[in-house]
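Record pair follows.
FIRST:
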Amino acid sequence: MPRFNDGFIANMYLQIKRFWRARSRVIGSIVQPIFWMIFFGIGFTNSVTLRGPGLVYMDYLIPGVIVMTIFTASFFSGMSVIWDKEFGFLKLVLVSPAPRKASIFGRLVGDAIVALTQGVVISIVAYFIEPDLNYINIPIVLCIALLVAVSTSSLGIIIASRLSSMEGFGLIMNLIMMPFIFGSGVFFPIEAMPTWMKALAYASPLTYGADAARELMLGVSSFAIMHDVLALLIITIVLIGIAMFSFEKMTVG
């Protein structure tokens, strides 16, 4: 147990410290969602009509952008694995006395904390842009978004465990992340999607996180909130299991 705790805490601390030392990543992770809200929210507010009394596009967009910020940030778990492979640090992790499960779980929790911190910052910014939403439910939104963070971090680690170059991971990450973002209901309702896109949306943890956030902050959703939470729990448990299995089998040449 002491070895497990040491491995868990060390890897969690590493991920948090690594983020705060990368100033460009800190700035970019905050500025990019603000651009989404300003250019998409303000730009489309007068041109997009949504069903619902008094519902405007900015109101619809902000809950999704908050969860999308956490989703995007969580993908960097995989990038850190690739980085550690290239610079040899991963060898130390794999041969350390701490169980590999402790290492991977520490990484997941560390990255989830980093992602949630960004979600808090964007929530504060969103309040000044559109203060009429139900921000009192933000703590519940962030608790649900924690599942999005952990599941997405697990997916990033699963992909990274099979790759050995930053370029390859960046390409695969974009190929997966962009369809998940635009096919998740963050920017337009799932009901407006064609059937093939709905199938993609149902497989994305971002879909259920954004839908639950919209229900809590706006009172509008495509699914019941318990449906969103249950779907997120199932996706998270499955992806954590695969991520741990992949990390257990990982070797570094």
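SECOND:
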Amino acid sequence: MILILGSSGKVGRELLPLLIETGAAVRAAYRSRPPLIDGCELVQVDAVTGDGIDAALEGVTDLFLLMGHMANQTEVELGIVERAQAAGVGRIVKLSCLDAPSMAYSFARIHRPVEEAIEQSGLAYTFLRPENFMQNFLTDYADMVRGGTLYLPCGDARTCPIDARDIARVGAAVLGTREHDGKGYDLTGPEALTFSSICETLGEAIGKTLAFETIPEAAFAEAMKAEGVSAEDIEIFLDLYRYIDAGQTSRATDWVERITAQSATTFAEFATAHKSVWMA
């Protein structure tokens, strides 16, 4: 029995059908939006309060630990790891973040303590450490794309965004075998792109000129504050952009292709497939 936490999220909803197609017994955990798919067991949980977690873990052999960004995320995930141990789960596949062992930026400091707890738990494990999702351009950056300018608090640095569907393919492959136990994989898209080149690709897909501009951290922080983002989360995201600006996200890896035997999605392919979102 495979339990997927975060089954309605960007990765979880892509992972579910891949696992169901293999004939695996799958239990999909959700908080408020049940995934609309047949062939799996649904269970409602609240990871923050812990409601439903123990019932969801009952009889589970493999846990896919996927949590969306939230307050006290490290503590919440540590609690789930402890409960998974107590429930007799055999393996945890955790969705982490790029360069988590470095502890060099905000998201790494959120995820690495959970990785360490899993390593010390005695459970089998695999860590999937993706770069920024291409899907962020469908959500966080969508309004800026529609407006014609992508404003970010960093220079025109290189990044290797990855399609969430590729992360899901890796997750399905890892859950289907034990050869990846004890390993961690930095997952990226197939190419390192500057934000200007990303804008050019998006512009070609939607038939308009799209520019990239650097804005001061203070201006970006004010914009996030106006959208209701907490001061703590503002600093977390600013620290991420500092990491990007320092050139730390310019290394493309080939783990997607090596693990799944399929090429990773290029940004041009992604932009073409989703162009209607920015043309709406």
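COMMENT: DSSP finds twelve helices and eleven strands in the chain.
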